[in-house]
């Protein structure tokens, strides 16, 4: 046993210090990034914000809406091959730049992934997702997947420390997914005591990834547009959102009427709700590590997208970054104990 005593920070612990800027308007800020990925050598450009691969977020409908803004969606892994067929018959070719096929690490996952890519070779991205990316089996699965799909862009995770980022990049990942426990419907930290404050995880993992020519996606912990800006400021190449994209028309989940008001169900993919739905219940050797909530229906995701992108452009103007790429270099975090005046908060 050992104790690390250096400070680890989450989004709530910091704010971004403003700097002199020559930008006259938020409209002058470009949020698009361009990457050439480490192993696949594929080029991608777009706004590097992602909808999470949860069946209450990463839906085909969400992908269609977000692609209009060049935002990305990791499609959840529970769609059937028939559902993929129906969607791909109507999907624009450009959409393949803004969606990933998600997979677990089981034999059935491998077979389904192969079937999807055999039918739709134009798809470019794979998202290999497990709660615990520290297992040797996971790294081996990433390596095997890279050998099977040498020209696909592989995103893999989740991890929160630099050495595992390096291992996954060396195993064949192009992008490493960073985050253990910060999600709004994740209870991993409560059930296991394991986790890492998200901002410090981003800073450490981005440094490791960029040293090898790879990228990271910050997954979880964003509650407000300012948190998205802090994630990019800390060095994240992509930011993945779950709760912020939940509860919309395009989100999955049941619609529920409570006292005349409309709500949508949102749950973690390790929750009892998800496991009952997809794998016949919680196995007797594990505990549920997610919760189920009802979110007041938010309408079309369009308004939320504009809110996030508008906030991010405003961040860039406050620090003088004309492009999102410049935000990290222009960011100085200051430690705080208070984020906002909550006198009129509910």
Structural summary, described in words:
- By secondary structure, the protein is of the alpha/beta class.
- Helices cover 32% and strands 19% of the residues.
- The strands form 4 sheets. An 8-stranded parallel β-barrel has the order 4-5-6-7-8-9-10-11, surrounded by 6 helices. The chain has a 3-stranded antiparallel β-sheet with strand order 12-13-14.
- β10, α8 and β11 form a beta-alpha-beta unit.
- α4 packs parallel to α5, α5 packs across α7 and α8 crosses α10.
- The longest helix has 18 residues.
- The protein starts with 13 loop residues before the first strand and ends in an 11-residue tail after the last strand.
Mean pLDDT rating: 93
Quantity of strands, as a count? 15
Major beta sheet, specifics?
8 strands, parallel, barrel
Q: Output the radius of gyration.
A: 19 Å
Which descriptor suits the 3D outline? Answer: globular
Roughly what percent helix? 25-40%
Total of helices: 11
* Fraction of residues in β-strands: 15-25%
Descriptors for this entry?
alpha/beta; 3-stranded antiparallel β-sheet; globular; 11 helices; 8-stranded parallel beta barrel; 346 residues; 19% strand
Give a short summary of the structure.
It is built from 11 helices and 15 strands. It is an alpha/beta fold and 346 residues long. The strands form 4 sheets. Strands 4-5-6-7-8-9-10-11 form an 8-stranded parallel beta barrel, surrounded by 6 helices. Strands 12-13-14 form a 3-stranded antiparallel β-sheet.
């Amino acid at each position: 046993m050992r104790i690390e005593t250096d400070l680890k920070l989450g989004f709530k612990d910091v704010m971004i210090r403003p700097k002199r800027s020559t930008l006259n308007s938020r409209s002058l800020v470009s949020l698009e990034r361009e990457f050439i990925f480490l192993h696949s050598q594929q080029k991608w450009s777009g706004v590097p914000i992602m909808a999470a691969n949860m069946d209450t977020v990463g839906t085909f409908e969400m992908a269609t809406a977000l692609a209009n803004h060049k935002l990305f969606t990791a499609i959840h892994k529970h769609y059937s091959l028939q559902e993929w067929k129906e969607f791909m018959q109507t999907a624009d070719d450009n959409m393949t730049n803004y969606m990933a096929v998600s997979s677990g690490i089981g034999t059935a996952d491998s077979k389904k992934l192969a079937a999807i890519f055999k039918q739709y070779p134009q798809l470019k991205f794979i998202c290999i997702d497990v709660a615990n990316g520290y297992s040797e089996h996971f790294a081996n699965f990433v390596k095997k997947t890279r050998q099977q799909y040498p020209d696909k862009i592989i995103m893999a995770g989740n991890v929160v420390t630099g050495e595992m980022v390096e291992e996954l990049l060396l195993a064949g990942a192009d992008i490493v997914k960073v985050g253990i426990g910060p999600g709004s419907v994740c209870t991993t930290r409560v059930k296991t005591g394991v986790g890492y404050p998200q901002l410090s995880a981003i800073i450490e993992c981005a440094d490791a990834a960029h040293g090898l020519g790879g990228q990271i996606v910050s997954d979880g912990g964003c509650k407000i547009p300012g948190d998205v800006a802090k994630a990019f400021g800390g060095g994240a190449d992509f930011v993945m959102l779950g709760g912020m994209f939940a509860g919309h028309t395009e989100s999955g989940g049941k619609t529920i009427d409570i006292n005349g008001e409309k709500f949508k169900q949102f749950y973690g993919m390790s929750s009892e709700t998800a496991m009952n739905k997809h794998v016949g219940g919680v196995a007797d050797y594990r505990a549920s590590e997610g919760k189920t909530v009802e979110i007041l229906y938010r309408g079309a995701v369009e308004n939320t997208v504009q809110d996030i992108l508008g906030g991010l452009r405003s961040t860039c103007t406050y620090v003088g970054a004309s492009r999102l790429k410049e935000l990290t270099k222009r960011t100085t975090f200051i430690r705080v104990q208070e984020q906002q005046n909550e006198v009129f908060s509910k």
